[in-house]
Every structure is written in C-alpha cells, then in structure tokens.
Amino acid sequence: MSTPNAERCTVLIMNLVDRMIEAGSWAGETHLQKSVYFGQEIGGLPTSFGFVLYKHGPYSFQLHDALTTMRVDGLLTVVPKDPYGPSFKLGSNSARAIRRFPKTLRTHRKILEFVSKTLSVRGVAELERLATALFVYRDDEKASVEDRVTAIVDLKPHISRESAMTAVSEVDAIVSEWTAD
Q1: What is the number of structural domains in the chain?
Q2: What are φ and ψ of residue 91, in 5° steps?
Q3: Residue ranges making up the domain that contains 98
C-alpha cells in the first residue's frame, strides 16, 4: 500500500516526465535519474531518493524501483526508440493520479520547470559530467574549483580535466541561477 508521501513523489516524477518531453527530452531513465537528482539537491524536491555514484554518475536504485512500480501501475509506460533504448511517457492511469495532488504540483512547479528546462535536451555524457560535478559539489561545497575538477577526474577517469572544468563551471552557474530566483 502506498503512502500519501509516496503518491506525491510519484506525481512529481510523472510531472517531471511530462515536462521533460515538452522540453524536447528523450525522457529515458538516465535523463530522469539526473533530473530527479538535480531537483532534490538544488531545489529540495521532496522525492528523498538515495543516490550513489555509479557507472554514469549519480544513480538511485530506489528511483529505478519506483519507475518499475509506476510502469506496473500504469502511471508510466515505456516507448522503445531504436537504436538507443526506451523513453518514458505518461501511462493510462496517470491523469487520475496527477489530479489528486494539485497543491503538490503548484508547490514544486518552479523546480520542475527549472530542471526540465536546464537538463532535458542535454546528452547522456553531458548529464553524467554535470551530475558528477554536482555530486562532488554537494560532498564539499567549500572545495575549490581545482579540487572539484580533480575529484571528478579521480572518480571518472574517462572525463578529461577540460570537460570536468566545464562541468564544474556549468554546475556553479546552474546552482547560482536556481538560488537567484
């Protein structure tokens, strides 16, 4: 049985998927994982998933399980898109669920819009760099730019120092833009 908080979290994810698609996103799991991570970390999106640094940056096994449950419940559906893999879209039962939580959606509208606008059309490799840069930033917000670049390269040796520097600068700009609102 789901709790009201779990249902609110589900509605936030569905709304994010819808916004991502509207913004031109592939809306695959990687895009969704990174978008939820940014939403939680910079905007306080109350999804409360635990993220670990994984193959392509921060990843939540809890979010993966929630997405599977949402598919089973008809809240999300998967659309195959060859040759790259599936993307999500709202399922047949989503509209009814979304109508139940208008206040939740109003409360978190800004961060959902911001994340979808900021991340939706970026490629998977870019999302990995940005999310890893945010992961390093959140680990030590007082670390210098050079220390964060070094940490990214140490954690992800396939990311060049130049790409890591760009990611750190972009994350700083994204956090600054969000906090300026």
Answers
A1: 1
A2: -90, 180
A3: 4-180
Distance between CA atoms of residues 41 and 178, nearest Å: 11
pLDDT tens digits along 97-125:
999 999 999 999 999 999 999 999 999 99
* 146: its two tokens: 């050079």
Q: Taking Cα atoms as reference points, which of 171, 136, 168, 173 lies closest to residue 151?
A: 136
The dihedrals phi and psi of 2, each to the nearest 5 degrees, come to -90, 150
Q: Are strands 57-59 and 76-79 parallel, antiparallel or unpaired?
A: unpaired
Burial class of residue 157 (count of CB atoms within 10 Å of its CB; 0-12, 13-18, 19+): exposed
52-54/87-90 β-pairing: unpaired
Burial of 8 (0-12, 13-18, 19+ CB in 10 A): buried
Contact 39, 115 (CB under 8 A): yes
Cβ contacts of residue 64 below 8 Å, gap of 6+? 29, 33
The half-sphere exposure of 86 on its side-chain side, counting CA atoms within 13 A, is 10
Look up residue 177 and give its two tokens.
């833009």
Q: Tokens 């939403």 sit at which residue?
A: 39
Q: How does residue 84 score in pLDDT terms, banded at 50, 70 and 90?
A: confident
